[in-house]
Amino acid sequence: MGDDTRIRVLNRNIRLLSYTLLALFLGVMSYMIYFQVFMAEEIEAKQGNVRYLAKTNKVLRGNIYDRDGNVLSFSERQEDGTQKRVYSGGTPFSHPLGYASAQYGVAELEKRMQEHLTNYSFDLTLSAKDFLGMLKNPDSYVGEEKYGDNVVTTLDSKLQRAAFDSLGSQYGVVVAMDPSTGEILAMVSTPTYNPSKIDTDYESYRNDTDGVMVNFANVGLYPPGSSFKVVTLASALQNMGNALGRTFEDKGKIEFADGTVLPNLNNRAYGTIGLEEALVVSSNVVFGTVAMEIGNAALRKTAESFGFNERFSFHDINLEASKFPELSKSQGGEIAQTGIGQGEVLASPLLMAMITSAIANDGVMMQPRLVSAVTSHDGSIRGAFDAKALKTPISKEDSDTIAAFMKEVVDQSSSANLKNLEKLSAAGKTGSAQYSELVYEEIVTGVHSWFIGFAPYEDPKIAIAVIVRGGGSGAGAAAEVAEDVISAYLGK
């Protein structure tokens, strides 16, 4: 091999090595740029990130207040430089507020408002000196004190505690709202947990078979039973000609070709009745018949206009999608079941409260709100969250009709709990929802107690949805809780 050949080979190898080194350099640079430019914010915000922990610990987490300025949770700086979250609102507020823990992260409102409570808008870059100090002792590294913003909720402490106390040892949910603004006045889910013990008892809470850490108000889905009949009624008003002039023959049950039966309670027959009386006596026959006549597509469209089959995510709360099925015309029995809130129909308590609010608010459904404002450490307003209309599922005329029928449900009832609600000028609808669940490989059946309503009828100030799981008749446990909560709010 001549000198020229050896030189060419050497030059080729040098070029190959140079290209390889250049490719490796560009790969490393691309990797670094990707994480610095595109992933930096996400990585920075991860709760396990050491820089994030150091930075958030440098900020004394902001307070959370109720609507009247009472402190529900706040943070205290400890001698070792860390901070401790104090839940002054106590156990009744555990589900809407959640928890903030250096060990187990954040949940519920503490998580959704994390950016504000930790003043996350500050500069996240660290000097080399700060970074070395943080690495040596990340938990206690503080430096110059900074304060997070405060969050003002829409919760009414008196009402929250009244709902919590009324549910007591029962398993259930209460959601109370201002129908004209969408403000959540109370949100209670039981059983619950103690947020003050989250660092010591987290594992036992997480593994609890009753789901004590789950806020069933917005993610729990249950058959709504007869409380759903207000939606079927709305669909009848929208889809049946002269619906208010129609009468139906109620013989106590509907018999289907496949041999199945849809009965009224105790097979009671009500004879020839219209829609108003059908709602008052909660006729399964009439509302099952209405569902079959208007058809699955029309009823599903109405249900979806009220928010079924849609998952909502707002800045301060999310809402799991309630379920309404798509059925074929041949499934007459299943269609009839959906008309009375059974079959494959599932609803969250929060959505049922929103539906009730829409009926009380001239057909306009307001966006549910758990936060009204964010304030700085010195009390100045950082931002306010105004009332927003979410949708208009029904007309004012139809909402007025349904509201009037719901008033008659209360006024004409012989139930002691509904008689007490009548004194509060409340309108409402009970529900006794049959359920069947698989528990430890066994089928468990029972009846959920539901009540939805609002008061006062003439000028609604509060709308409510209550479910007592396994509580039986809606005129019993749920109506009793609703009466306690509405009475507490109206001061009667």
Automatic annotation (TrEMBL):
One of its GO terms (biological process) is cell division. Residues 172-486 form the Penicillin-binding protein transpeptidase domain. Residues 61-124 form the Penicillin binding protein A dimerisation domain. It comes from the Bacteria. Keywords: Cell cycle, Cell division, Membrane, Transmembrane, Transmembrane helix. Pfam families: PBP_dimer_2, Transpeptidase. The chain crosses the membrane at residues 16-37. The lineage of its organism: Bacteria, Bacillati, Bacillota, Clostridia, Eubacteriales. It comes from Youngiibacter multivorans. Gene3D superfamilies: DD-peptidase/beta-lactamase superfamily, Penicillin-binding protein 2a (Domain 2). The keyword Iron does not apply. This is Cell division protein FtsI/penicillin-binding protein 2.
